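#struct-queue
[09:14] JT: dropping the first one here, sequence first, then the structure tokens:
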Amino acid sequence: MTSAHPSNSSPLAVPIGAVVPYDMALDRELRQFSRDSFGFDQLDLLFTRTPFEPLTVTVEQARAISRREVIRKAVRSVSATDPDGYIYGCTSGSFVRGVVGERRLAHTISEAGRKASTTAMRKLEAADSYPEECPDPAPVRTPSAVTTSGALLEAVHALGLSSIAAATPYDTAIVELFGQFFAEAGVKLVHAAHLGLAGRIWTVPWQTTYDLVRRADTPEAEAVLIACTNLPTYEILDQLEQDLGKPVLSANQTTIWAALRRADRDYFGPGAALRACLNSKPEHTPEATREGVAPA
């Protein structure tokens, strides 16, 4: 694979603020997907969680964990580290309000990160708190922002797909909204299989997920998407692509792939389709410039 990022890019992991729901249990898997060909993390994921909500996995929960003020607070909680960008690691929370809602969410994250970093820098400058031996801080920039559903859609477009199948742990109501999200973007959901789970999704065995994807697949689908960042997929993606003969894209995989694109880093994780995908930076970044995004 030919590297798409500059040869003089920093060997250090790129700091990325990772906003995830309160019940997220797969931090380790997100880190796994960011590893380079030598096994080193390319992204330094700085995790923060939304406040606990006494809710099961439903449309109501998806709306609760993606309210804009909840997300702003979560971004601010990690912004003092001045990340280069942010990810919102939740599938349902980023598609529950449709494509426009996803774009507004990404814009909210990016702007919240920029404003919080600006405020922190001003406070430190006013207090003259920078050690003399440290270099002057870089100017505050608008950080990139990736949402999981936005990353899934970005991967679908990058691969030139127009029809998909979906394998999800959700109930029927959430699956319907997942299909509507892609339909708004001109991608047809031709078939879906789901588990109807209300919680503890991270405990689903590999074999159950593998069988779920096989049930979701249909000849009309150009690829199968595995939704939910709490559903483990790292160990089975390569095998599924070989067995099905088509791209199999997962929530955590595409979230990290999209974040790596913005960091000018290559993707080396499981999934031949994305490993072979041209790793150019997407044209619509930064998120604040997206067409049709309302100001935060």
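[09:21] JT: and here's the second one, same format:
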Amino acid sequence: MSAPEASELGGGARPRPARRGARARSAAPSRARRVLTPLVAVVALLAVWEAVVDLGLVPNFLLPTPVQVVTALVEDAALLASHSVTTLAEAAAGLVVGVVLGFAFAVLMDRFETFYLAFEPLMTISQTIPTVAIAPLLVLWLGYGALPKVVLVVVSTFFPITVSLASGFRSVDPDVIDLMRTMNASRWQIFWYAKLPAAADQFFSGLKISATYAIVGAVIAEWLGGNAGLGVYMTRVRKSFSYDRMFASIIIISVLSLALMKLVELVQRALMPWKRAERNSNER
């Protein structure tokens, strides 16, 4: 047998799986690239936006330039901060209540099949009603204070939490539940050690969605009445045709939504350390 044949059949074979793994790692984008690529895209978009307005392709009274938006942010920083605190407080209160109610309803839907069959279609139908249509009724029923804003946020955030948790509870492997029952585990132990960890990932996914809905829901409710909040600020500057301040408030709303989503991610990392370990092992 020749030496090349022996190397093909014997221990001289190359470790192809390891080579494929190295190729996959080299093909993955670096951290610097993941940061710089969207940053360059945003800078390019802002440059095109500025050029379009400066060249007169779009009238300036219809579309402010990025420089004008930044100027409005600086000039109204204190006022925007004050309104942001009000909106954030309403959104946080509604989000907490929505999470508590969603968790309670998801547990009941998992525990009682009749409750699930009766409530699931009603909950789905409720999401077909536009939020803008509910807000005037809440203001009419509950007044112009903070209560209708909080209730609208609860309505907006309740559905993602309930659906994600109920789906997570039902995703548990039945064999795991049968095994725990053979070990004489109680319903509480099955829920705590099997169902709750299985639903945690889906719960935080729903919570991220609810966090964005919370800010938007509070702003929509503020459009229709109130004395403070980003929605009230947007209504006032819109009536005065100050579109640069309109864009400034939109930026603040986006920043608040992203901040809430990032907070949810930090909480998820703290409460689910095994997900971080799995991610690190996959990156290796």
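[09:30] RK: nice, looked through the second one.
[09:31] RK: The chain has two domains: 16-63, 64-279.
[09:31] JT: good to know. Residues 16-63 form one domain.
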